[in-house]
């Protein structure tokens, strides 16, 4: 796990994929009210938007900052990403070229209530997260690029991003130790800086 930070990229990529599938499941199985309550729960009797949720509201054109002032329509618009499962472009990754994972079906467990879909695994170094890690200028640039990754389209054809899923901070935490290059040496003892995957 020393060179390339491939394990960090794999973990971040697959966390985003898992979160997207969980969000699709919850939107399919819950009404607007309970879904909104899960996304913006009351803590000690107070309901408050997080900074990432405020960014989503701004993208939606909603200027309110108090969750209790949103109309039912605004709550629904905020809570539902309405991901079109035929327009998902974010696959899970594995650091292995396993041909039998090129097309799979997920959601076959009875707990998923019949919500299956076809997807695939890509090789880890092909993840967009690897490209962002390799090409980002600094942590703020990487954060912005991660936030703007398009993972799917919604049912009206609009992009759904990692930030819409509320994942930017979690991705940064997983990648934090991968930002800096690794100092290694060649077989001849020459110092080498190794950063990100091939």
Blueprint (SSEs and pairs):
Elements: H1 6-29, H2 32-39, E1 42-43, E2 46-47, H3 51-59, H4 72-79, E3 83-88, E4 92-94, E5 104-106, E6 117-119, E7 121-123, H5 128-135, H6 139-147, E8 150-154, E9 159-161, H7 168-175, E10 182-185, E11 191-194
Parallel strand pairs: 4-7
Antiparallel strand pairs: 1-2, 3-8, 5-6, 8-9, 10-11
Protein name: Tetrahydrofolate synthase
Keywords: ATP-binding, Ligase, Nucleotide-binding, One-carbon metabolism
Pfam families: FTHFS
What do you see in this structure?
- The protein is an alpha+beta fold and 198 residues long.
- The chain has a single domain (5-194), classed as Domain 2, N(10)-formyltetrahydrofolate synthetase.
- It is built from seven helices and eleven strands.
- The protein has helices spanning 6-29, 32-39, 51-59, 72-79, 128-135, 139-147, 168-175, and strands at 42-43, 46-47, 83-88, 92-94, 104-106, 117-119, 121-123, 150-154, 159-161, 182-185, 191-194.
- The strands form five sheets. A three-stranded antiparallel sheet has the order 3-8-9, with no helix packed on it.
- Helix 1 crosses helix 5 and helix 6 packs across helix 7.
- 24% of the residues are buried.
- Keywords: ATP-binding, Ligase, Nucleotide-binding, One-carbon metabolism.
- One of its GO terms (molecular function) is formate-tetrahydrofolate ligase activity.
- This is Tetrahydrofolate synthase.
CATH level-1 class: Alpha Beta
Helix and strand string, N-terminal first? HHEEHHEEEEEHHEEHEE
Structural class: alpha+beta
CATH architecture: 2-Layer Sandwich
What is the oligomer described by this structure? single chain
Instruction: Tell how many strands the DSSP assignment holds.
Output: 11
Radius of gyration: 19 Å
Protein name: Tetrahydrofolate synthase
Organism: Mythimna unipuncta (Armyworm moth)
GO molecular function: ATP binding; formate-tetrahydrofolate ligase activity
Keywords: ATP-binding, Ligase, Nucleotide-binding, One-carbon metabolism
């Amino acid at each position: 796990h020393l060179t390339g930070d491939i394990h960090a990229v794999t973990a971040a990529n697959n966390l985003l994929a898992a979160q997207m599938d969980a969000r699709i499941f919850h939107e399919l199985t819950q009404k607007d009210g309970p879904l909104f309550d899960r996304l913006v729960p009351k803590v000690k009797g107070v309901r408050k938007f997080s900074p990432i949720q405020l960014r989503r509201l701004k993208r939606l054109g909603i200027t309110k900052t108090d969750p209790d002032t949103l109309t039912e329509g605004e709550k629904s618009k905020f809570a539902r990403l309405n991901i079109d499962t035929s327009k998902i472009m974010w696959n899970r990754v594995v650091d292995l070229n396993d041909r039998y994972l090129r097309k799979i079906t997920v959601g076959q467990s009875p707990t998923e209530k019949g919500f299956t879909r076809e997807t695939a695994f890509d090789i880890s170094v092909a993840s967009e997260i690897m490209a962002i890690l390799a090409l980002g200028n600094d942590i703020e640039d990487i954060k912005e690029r991660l936030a703007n990754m398009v993972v799917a389209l919604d049912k009206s054809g609009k992009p759904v991003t990692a930030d819409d899923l509320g994942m930017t901070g979690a991705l940064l935490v997983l990648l934090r130790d991968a930002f800096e290059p690794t100092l290694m040496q060649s077989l001849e003892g020459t110092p080498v800086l190794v950063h990100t995957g091939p």
